[in-house]
């Protein structure tokens, strides 16, 4: 390459040279240092590091600024004649002394010819020792070293700029690929996140579309989450989402529990309850899987799987799939075992008839006061406000014991743990 040619040219330049224009001026090249001997004046000048290879252009420069460059027409094993050309000509062209451009004052240069003294290199060395040596002053030497250091730093800076330009070109190419993918039309089964119209929730509640984009996102996420879900971990829990309310039912039990979802506008996500879990975003609607992860990143989450029909194991377990008759039977069994009255919701129209209700325990007749005392009016309890129907169809007024749990298990064919 260029670096190898520079080293070969510098190696061929070693030795003694004579100025063609001034034959009494000799030059001795040692590595990158040039020793100049002027025989007619007896002056000797040593120029340290004046020869500087330029690997980028495959040439050798004279001095730090590179005002002159070396030109060798033809050379094989050794050089016989070289030229130092001025590099400050028009357009960076080199100008040789004696040419028309040099006579016009646009540059200068000189030519060397290989010189072989009669006594050989030893005679030339003795001659150089006899003549006084005039080296550069200290401040000029320091200035020359600083210029060399600045030039080396400049070369490093240029290489770093080339590397950064290459990285920027690769980055722009990657961005173009991404933009081309984004500009491709969406597939038919892909539904955008925002909805063009209001969404009607179960129960008649309607969520209208709002102006800001984050409200459109809220409507889309809530609408995609509606329906029944199965917990993928143990597949023993069914969740039914109606609006922002979630009802959980466990298999083989009458137990049911309600939760509330809320939209976090700052984080643009749907959260569980007070924000303990957050629904992971998804771009495909409707969702077939919902992933809930801890909002703080600590702990484990859970995953829902879309449920179209109840599994076979839920035919006699879940209240959502067993129907009102099984709920009423479970409620009656609990009440009979506990010896309490029950409050049973009326079944919806079209449902099968309920099982025979368990009669309430007999009420003791009111006590009649003795004849010696005047009769007192019977105390009536204060009227209570109508209670809201709870998630369960049975209201038990005190804790169940082991006997009650056994009675419920015998009546319903399911295990019922006391609480």
Features:
419 residues; ten-stranded mixed beta sheet; 27% helix; Lipocalin; coiled coil; alpha+beta
Structural class: alpha+beta
Task: State the strand order across the main sheet.
Answer: 5-6-7-8-9-1-2-3-4-10
H/E element string? HEEEEEEEEHEHEHEEHEEEEEEEEHHH
Q: Give the N-terminus to C-terminus distance in angstroms.
A: 88 Å
**Total helical elements:** 8
Largest sheet: 10 strands, mixed
Keywords: Coiled coil
Could you walk me through the main structural features you see in this protein, from its secondary elements to its overall organization?
With 419 residues, the protein is of the alpha+beta class. Among the domains are: 6-88 and 108-130; 218-306, Lipocalin (Beta Barrel), CATH 2.40.128. The protein has helices spanning 2-12, 100-103, 120-130, 138-182, 213-224, 319-322, 324-338, 402-412, and strands spanning 15-19, 25-30, 33-38, 43-47, 51-54, 59-62, 68-71, 81-86, 110-114, 133-134, 199-200, 206-207, 227-231, 237-242, 245-250, 256-264, 269-272, 277-279, 289-294, 302-307. It starts with a helix and ends in a 7-residue tail after the last helix.
